[in-house]
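ESCALATION

Customer reports they have been waiting on this structure for their group meeting. Please prioritize. Original submission:
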Amino acid sequence: MAYKISEGCISCGACAADCPVDAISDGGERYVIDADTCIDCGACASTCPVDAISEG
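Update from on-call: job pushed to the front of the queue and completed.
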């Protein structure tokens, strides 16, 4: 199951920079993860400074 970014996202972009498959993009108010592209590696979750990313 793909990871998801919660409303706690501060739009810093750290997760997008660390995603090995470019599944994360700026969604306006917060970043979003494309579930079809996400490979469930967890790189984004370990990078998030506010713990706004979790397994979906």
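Sent to customer with the following note: The mean pLDDT is 96.
Escalation resolved.
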